[in-house]
Amino acid sequence: MKGLELSKSFYYEYGEPMLINSFPNLMDKIAVGLIGAGSECFAYDDSISTDHDFDPGFIIFISDEIDEDTKFKIEREYAKLPRTYKGYERAIISPVGGNRRGVKRVSDFLKEKTGTSDGKLNVYDWLHLDEEFLAEITNGEIWRDDGKIISNIRMKLAIFPEDIKLKKLAGSILIMAQSGQYNYERCISHNELGASRLALYEFVNAAIHTTFLLNEVYMPFYKWRFRALRDLSWPKNFKIKSELNYIEGIEDDSVIEVPLEKMLISLLNINDEKLFSHSVSRNIDLIAKVFVDRLKNDNLTSRDDIFLEYHAYEINNRIKDINIRNMNILEGV
Questions:
Q1: Less packed terminus of the chain by CB within 10 Å, N or C?
Q2: What pairs with residue 141 in β-bridges?
Q3: Which residues of 319-332 are buried (b: 16+ CB within 10 A; e: fewer)?
Q4: Which pLDDT score is estimated for 327?
Q5: What is the three-class DSSP state of 300?
Q6: Residue 330 within a domain
Q7: d(Cα 138, Cα 125) in Å, to the nearest integer?
């Protein structure tokens, strides 16, 4: 059973009856669900995930209107819930913090993730806040929130404001151009093997970031990025003729469809003999071409040139807020 399903079942069987019976007058100041850090909040958990931080607990969010004494009473009732559920033992809630379950003030949760207690972000916050934290605020599920004490905030933080998205998109695409289309081959020319691999890593990471931005989904913590790529609606596959490209495990000259995930992993897995192959640059340009087509389809660029740097500056010039537009193009990345 997935962790989110386990926690939801535990809440409806034991948690909700406890809250309604013990705190009926506070239900408009309480929200319940499971969001935040942890693979189960993204529904990425599997059998290996159960080895740590996996239990049927949930989060009871409370508003600042609830005083500390009442908060303690809610914590005490939460602690009385069954210690085991469907074969899983609940984690012990530490009084010194660091817990992913239990009773949390909405303001404390937001402060931890965004640096603000109300979730209201200024331009600087939007540009510089790690996107993984925005992903943790908006992932998972809220099962009850009569007073909308956190649901409304999650809705407001669900996607980047348009100018912020464009700034981040311009910077991420520029990094793709600099690392993959320019510096990779220069590093090869200088016989800098390590630097060329780092250039490929930067290209891959920027390509992933760009993909999330174009799908209007927050990029999660690095260990889940490839997993998250599979759930995005674009792009599903690249059509390539394999004799002109290096894709691990494919050597014939047939035309095949390859997911973006596999294309990027192949760049990361290139061995020393293949590192200097022109097929690496071909794959980089093939990926770049797919991104250019998407940018044109979204009316974010008008150029046909495959070199991504041109498109990065055109996107930046489309930002409406002059202050954001005039910031360094890399300000958001």
A1: N
A2: 34
A3: beeeebbebebebb
A4: 98
A5: coil
A6: no
A7: 16
Q: What is the mean pLDDT of the chain?
A: 91
3-state secondary structure (DSSP) of residue 73: helix
Question: β-strands 88-89, 102-105: how paired?
Answer: unpaired
Q: Residue 78: which H helix or E strand, with range?
A: helix 68-79
Residue 186 in this model has a pLDDT that exceeds 70: yes
Domain count, the chain: 2
CA–CA distance, 46 with 36 (Å, rounded to integer): 17
Most confident among 51-55, 154-158, 269-273 (mean pLDDT)? 154-158
Q: Is the same domain home to 14 and 133? A: yes
On whether both 170 and 122 belong to a single domain, the answer is no
Q: Please say if the pLDDT value at position 32 is more than 90.
A: yes
User: Where among 100, 128, 156 does a domain terminate?
Assistant: 156
User: Which residues, in sequence order, are CB contacts of 70 under 8 Å at separation 6+?
Assistant: 23, 26
Sequence-distant (≥ 6) Cβ neighbours of residue 242 within 8 angstroms: 250, 251, 252, 253, 254, 255, 256
Shared-domain flag, residues 170 and 106: no
Same domain, 109 and 28: yes
* 46-50, 237-241, 317-321: range with lowest mean pLDDT: 237-241
pLDDT value of residue 1? 81
Q: Is 70 exceeded by the pLDDT of residue 177?
A: yes
Q: Which of 113, 135, 156 is the last residue of a domain?
A: 156
- Give the integer Cα–Cα distance in Å for 255 and 328: 41
Element (H, E) at 108: helix 106-114
